[in-house]
Amino acid sequence: MDPEKNPENDNGEKGKGPDGSNAPAGGDQRIQFAPTVRPPAPRRPVGGAEDGIAITRRSQSVASIPQVVSEKEKLDRRKREEEAKNVNIEEHLMPHEEVAAKYKTRINMDKPADSLGLTQQQSEELLREHGLNVLTPPKKRHPFLKFLDSLTSLFNLLLILAGILEYILLGIDFKDNFQNTYLGAILIAVAHINAFIEFYQQQKSQALLESFLNMIPAKCMCIRDGKLAQIEASSLVPGDVVFVRMGDKTPADILVFSASDCKVDNSSLTGESEPQERTKDNDMRNPLEATNIMFNSTLVVAGEAYGIVVRTGDSTVLGQIAHLTAGEEKTTSPLAHEIDNFVKIIATIAILTAVIFFGIAFPVNNNNASLAINFAIGIFVAWVPEGLPATVTMLLTIAAKRMASQNVLVKDLQGVETLGAITLLATDKTGTLTRNQMTTANIWTCGELYEASSRAGAEKDTAGLDKPGVAEVVHISALCSRARFDRTDVPVREREILGDATESGLVRYAAEQLNNFDALATEYPKVFELPFNSDTKWHMSIHKKPHANGPLTLYMKGAPERVWKLCNRILSGPDGESAEMNDQYRAAYDETYEHMASRGHRVLGFAELLLPGDKYPEDFVFDKKAKNYPEGDFVFVGLASLQDPPKHGVREAIGRCRAAGVKVIMVTGDHPLTAEAIGRKINLMLSETKQMVAKRTGKSLDQIGDEYKAVVVHGEQIDNLSDAEWDNIFWKDEIIFARTSPKHKLEIVRRAQSMGHIVGVTGDGVNDSPALKKADLGIAMNKSGSDVSKEAASMILLDDNFASTVRGIEEGRLIFVNLKKSIKYTITHSTPEVIPNLLYVIVPIPLPLSAILILVIDLGFELFAALSFAWDPPETAEGLMKLPPRKPVTRETANIFRRRALRRTQSRFDEEAGVIVSLENQTKMQKWLYKVRQMFSKEYWQDRFENTGAEVLVDGPLLSWSYLEIGLIEAVGALASFFVVMYRRGITPHDAYLMQKGTGAPTNYWTHDAQPYNGIDGPTQADILAEAQSMYYWAIMTMQMFNLFACKTRLTYPFGKYMFANHATFYCIAAGAALAAFIIYTPGVEVVFGTTRSLSPLYWLIPMGFGCVIIAYATLRMLIGRRTKPVKWNPEIAGLQMFPTIRTFRTMSSRSHERLPE
C-alpha cells in the first residue's frame, strides 16, 4: 500500500510533509490547527469516527449473530501476529564499529567512500554460506500434482466413475456390452482432457505472471577491496558495504553508517504514508521504526547513503513478511462451490434413479439380474452430462482470454466469474483511484487565487507568468528543489522525475510554464542550501540571481505556518513590491489556507529575500555551522496547493459499480478529509456523513440518529470496534476507512466476509498480501505492485487501471449468465436420453438411443452448441450492470450465513451474552458425528432451503426447465419421430412392444439373425431399428437447435434481433449439424454408430415442428414470468456523475472561495 501524502494530521491540524507540505512528519500525530486558521477540533467520542463522524451503536436484535471465527482460525491469527512482531534484526541497536566487526567488514565513518568493505575471497565464502540474495519463490506444487488437482474435481470424478461402471458392464456381459470398451475409455479420456485444459490454462497464466516478477533489483553499487563497482544484487552477502542514491531500490536490509539527506519510501513494506528519513543515528527499539535501517526493495526517493548489508534473501524483513503470507487461507470461489453442489445434485439424481429402476427392472424382466444391472448403470451414465465439464472450462478460458485483451490477467479460471459475483470492492486510493502524481492545483499570490493551469477547464483567472507574483512562485518551485528530470532530450510530458512527490509536482508545473527550465539551474546556480528536515519543515536555497540591490536571491518553501512566521512582509504587486504584514493579510492567508486544505489538497508556503549586495556580495561564503545566512524577515510570496487527481475514467467506473449494486469502499492510509474529498469527486461518496447532518440540522452529534448514509472511519477506531459497530458500518451505503494499516485491511476483509459479502480487494504492497489472499478475489497492480502481492492475488491489472476492474465485473457477470444458459441448454438432453432407457426396460420398447449415440450427442453437436454461448453478448447494453449482485447481502442473509458458519465451526450463539461459544477439544469422530446429527435436525433443513434471494448457477427453475419442461417436450418429440419412422416401415408401436417383449428375456428380434415378424426378416428389422434410432438422434439434435435459441434470453423474448447477435451460434450449429450428418449419412460410418443412410429428410419436419412448440412455450413462459415475477432492477442512485473525470476540475475564480468540495 502506498497512501498519498496527507494534508492534515489526525485531529485536524495542518501537518507537514517532507517538503513542508501539510502532511504529518513523524512524532506525535495529534497536533493542532493554529487558532487563527481553525478552532481546535472537539475531542472525538469513544467509538466515534474521525472529526465527529461517530458510529451509532444500533440496538441489535438478539437474533443478530456476530462474526463467527473457529478456534483453529483464532489460534492461527494469534500465531501469525506474534511472528509478524518478531522481526529478526538487532543491529540497529549496536554501534557501527561493532556491527562492522561482527561481519568482518571495514568501514570508514568519516569518509565512507574510502571504506574497504569485504575482500573478494570473504564475499565468495559468505555467498556459499548464505546463498544468493534472492527471495525463495513461494512453494509450488509439482505440475503433475496440479494436474491431479484438476482431475480430482467432483465433475471429473463423476465422469471417471461413469467410465469405470461401463467396464463393470463389460464384465457382466462381454459380448453384448463390447462397445462399452470404447465408451468407458472415452468417458475417462474426456475427464483427463478437461483436466488438461484447466491445467494448461493455469500454467500459462503462471508463466505470464512470472515474466512480470522481478524479486530484487538486477544491479547495485558495492565496495569490495576498497573499490566501488556495480555488481549483481543477487551476489550481495552480509557484511558488504553498499552505496545507494536517489532512484535506487535498496538491494538488501542494510545498516546505514553514513547518509546525506536520505529518504526512503517504506509504504509497500510498513504502510508509512510519508518518505522516511534515514540517518546513521537511531533511538527506536522496533527495527521497523529504526531510522538507521533500510529495508530490501524500498525505494530511495532522495539523497544518498552508505550501509552495511545485515540481511539478505529470505532473512530480510521482506522475506519474513512474504513467508507470513502463506499462512492466510484462500477462500473457495463461489463458482467452484456451486459447481460442486451441481455435481452432487446430478450424482444424487443419477444414483437414486439407478437404484429405483433397478428395483423395477429386476421383476419386470423375469428376475434377469444381468439385464437389471446393465440397465441401472446405463441410467446412471445417461444422467451424466459428459460434455459439460469441458464446456464450463472452455467458456471460462475464452472469457479469461477476453479479459487478458482488456489488461486483466486471471491466474485462476474461476476468478473470471468471481469478479462478476463480488458484492463489495475494497480499493486503495493512491495509484488505483488517483494517478499517484502530485499536480499543482491552485496558486495564491498578491491577494489573488488562481487556477494553476487552463488545462483543467479554466477560462480566466488562470495563473500565468504575466500575473503578479506567479513568476516568483514558479522560480521558487524550479530552483528551491532537489527533484530532477531523468533526461532532458524529450518533451517535459514524457520525462520521469526523480524526487519527492510534492517537489515533483511543483517541478513539473514549473517546467511546463518556463521555456528555459532546463537552463535555469545553470543560469542561476545554487550557492547554498538548507534541505528540508522534520525540525524546521522548510527548504532554503540561495542562488546567483541578480536584482536591483544585489547579485544573490534567497528562496524558501515549506509548511505554510512555518514560512509565514519567518516573514515580516508580503508580496503585494508586480516587480517585487511588498507590504508590511497586517491583520487583513493574515485573514486572507488564513481563509485561503483553510480553503485549500478543506479540499484535500497539500499546501506549501513560498517566501523570498532579495539579499542586499553590500552585506552579501557575489563571492560571499555561507556556512551552516556559523549560521551566517538570513534567518527571518523574509517576504511571503504566496501559497500553492497540490493534489493527486483522480485517474481518467475512475468516476464513471465507480458510478457503474454502484449502479450495478456493488458496494465500493475506500481503504487508505490518508487523512479522512483527503480521502473524503477524493471520494466525493469520484462517485464513491455522495450522501451526508453524520457531521454534515448535524451541521445542516443544527443539532449536536449525539442527537443525530441513523439518518446518515455515509461514514468515514478512522484507523484508530478499528482495533476497538465491537461486532455490532462493525455491522453498523457495513450497513451504510458509502464507507471510507482512513488512516488504516495493512492489518486493518485484512480485518475489514474478514468482517465483510463474515456477513456473506463476496469481497474483492485491490492492493500493491508487500503487507497487502494477506488481505489479497484472504479475499474472494485479490486484485494486484502490475506496474506499482510488489512481487509478493502479485503472487498472493488471483487477478492482476496489467495497466494498474481501476476501470479495468469494472470491465472485469461486467465480463464476470456475463460469463455467469452465459454459463447458466449453457448448463440450462446442455442438461436438457438428459431427459430424452434417460426416458428411452426407462421405457426400454419397463414397457418395454426397442431401445430408441444406443449408448454410443448418447455419447455422440454429448461430445459432438452439444459440445459445439454449448460452446457458442461463450460469445453471447449481453441482452441489453446496460442490463447486466443494472441488475443487483447475484448474492445480495441483507440483514437476513447475513444471519443465515452466520448460522451456517456456526454449524460449520460446531459453535453456538449465546443470545443472552451475545457471544459465540465454540466446542473445544473435539476429536475427529465427535466432529463427524456432529455433522451427521445436524443433517437429521429440523433447523438444518429449514436453513438449507431458506430463501436468501441469491441466484445460483443451477437452481430449481433451471432444473425444472431442463428436466421437466423442455426435456419432456423433446422426449415426446423424439419418441414421436422414432415411432413414425417405424410405422412408415410397417411396425406399429404395439408391434414394437410385442417384438421387444417377446416370450422371454432376452428377445429374439431387431438383430440380423432375428426371426421374421409379419414378414419382416432379421436384416430388415435391424435396418428399421437403425433408421428409427438415427431419427431419434437427429430429432434430439434438431430440437436442441431450437432450445439453443430458447435458452438465450431471460429478459427478452426468444426471437428478434438478439438471436442474430452472436454469429458463433450459427457456425457452431453448422459444425454440429455437419457432424450429425456425417455420422448418419456417410458410407461406412453407420457400422460404427449403428445408424443408416436410408433416413429420409422428410422426417426432419417432425422435430422441427416440436422445435416451434419449444419456442412458443418459452415465449409463453417468459410472458407469464414477466407478470408474476418481474425483473428487479437496482434503484437509481441520486447524484451519480457519469461524465469523464477530467471535467470535474472546476474553475476557481480568483475572488470566489467556494467551500464545498469538488
Automatic annotation (TrEMBL):
Transmembrane parts of this sequence: 147-170, 182-200, 345-365, 371-396, 961-983, 1058-1080, 1100-1120
Membrane topology designation: Multi-pass membrane protein
Gene3D superfamilies associated with the record: Calcium-transporting ATPase, cytoplasmic domain N (3.40.1110.10), Calcium-transporting ATPase, cytoplasmic transduction domain A (2.70.150.10), Calcium-transporting ATPase, transmembrane domain (1.20.1110.10), HAD superfamily/HAD-like (3.40.50.1000)
Annotated segments matching region Disordered: 1-83
Alphabetized UniProt keyword annotations: ATP-binding, Cell membrane, Membrane, Nucleotide-binding, Translocase, Transmembrane, Transmembrane helix
Cation-transporting P-type ATPase N-terminal domain sequence ranges: 90-171
Compartments, record wording: Cell membrane
Pfam family, one: Cation_ATPase
SMART domains: Cation_ATPase_N (SM00831)
Main location: membrane
GO cellular component assignments: plasma membrane
GO molecular function: ATP binding; ATP hydrolysis activity; P-type sodium:potassium-exchanging transporter activity
Protein name according to UniProt: Cation-transporting P-type ATPase N-terminal domain-containing protein
UniProt source species: Diplogelasinospora grovesii
Lineage of origin: Eukaryota, Fungi, Dikarya, Ascomycota, Pezizomycotina
